[in-house]
Amino acid sequence: MSRMSLSSLLPGMKVQRTVYGSRGEILIFKGGILTNAFIKKLEEHAIPFVYIDDGLEPDIQPRSSAGANLFKMNVQDVVAKETRVAAIRQVKNILLETKEAGRLVIEPQAVYSTVNQFTSELLSSKSLMVNLTDLRSQDDYTFAHSVNVCVLSLMTGITLGFNNEELANLGIGALLHDLGKVKIPDEILNKPGKLTREEYSTIQKHTTYGYNLILNSKNLDKTHALIAYQHHESYDGSGYPLGIKDDKFIEQAQIISIADKFDALTADRVYRRSFPPHEAYEMCAASGDYLFREHIVSAFLYNIAAYPSGSLVKLNNGYIAVVIDTPRGYSTFPRVNLLFDQNHRQLSTPKEISLAEAGSLFVTKVLTVEEIKALQQKIQGQ
């Protein structure tokens, strides 16, 4: 399975995952075959990428039957797609209704129920965090981002040993952390170029706006307001709005801050392309005792796969492999299938190994799109 940008899609490709629009509506089902009309529809909905079967339709399949399935992976997520779609709709309704009313419009019990559902699914999941971005489009970024941050934050809270009440407060705070952006003009939020100093100052006010909106609501806890207020503060005091540092702000805000950073880095935005997960992982890892408290960074990264399932990677022995999955706590040492030797010769049978157990083997790089295409062409020529 490959994640392909819209510009790379061709008629005849088979969709590996159902594609949803910004309102949660289905644009094309899993297993559907792309046509020019479908591709145009995806463009109209600003869908940034689609998961595609690497084997095309039968008349254009690689001659090698092994090659047809070489890159396909069955990727599982830590929470059900249906749960996330419902949560995205919920966050969207809260933000849009709050923007229209000028005050927080929320049904607390419904939000608690959503967070509890996430927590239940996370506690029963044994897989790592993978593919949280597959429901995002440019149109619904803020809503899907809030849901992703919620899931990432809850995973971190579980690792840190939070009790049910603490997890509930953390999850609700995560869903509402960007609430104040409803008061920021869309032309600033969606500006494709660099912000001016005045525009950046306006953006920064969303933390104060969110704090006041939540605090003025009688239905939520002050912790939720503090999360909205403090989630851009940094451990070294370089954040905003107050520039406080060390332990002078709540732990939940720090958890949501690193989740916010990771999800933002791995998302396509109007002003930049996304960073690959392994680069976002490295940036977060380097921020301990600088932007974030070290124990929070460790707990967060414990649940993050630096190389998501389906990634094609090169090992230090020169072999090329596809990532199967990653055991929790071994973020940079996935379980892989070896596909090609150091001379790029395809192995007759893929060999499965665990880098966490192999000892001397590790990933040295993630293959580029060009390198992957070259391998696919090599398979098709066999």
Automatic annotation (TrEMBL):
<dbReference type="GO" id="GO:0071111">
    <property type="term" value="F:cyclic-guanylate-specific phosphodiesterase activity"/>
</dbReference>
<feature type="domain" description="HD-GYP">
    <location>
        <begin position="120"/>
        <end position="316"/>
    </location>
</feature>
<dbReference type="InterPro" id="IPR003607">
    <property type="entry name" value="HD/PDEase_dom"/>
</dbReference>
<dbReference type="InterPro" id="IPR037522">
    <property type="entry name" value="HD_GYP_dom"/>
</dbReference>
<protein>
    <submittedName>
        <fullName>Cyclic di-GMP phosphodiesterase response regulator RpfG</fullName>
        <ecNumber>3.1.4.52</ecNumber>
    </submittedName>
</protein>
<dbReference type="Pfam" id="PF13487">
    <property type="entry name" value="HD_5"/>
</dbReference>
<keyword id="KW-0378">Hydrolase</keyword>
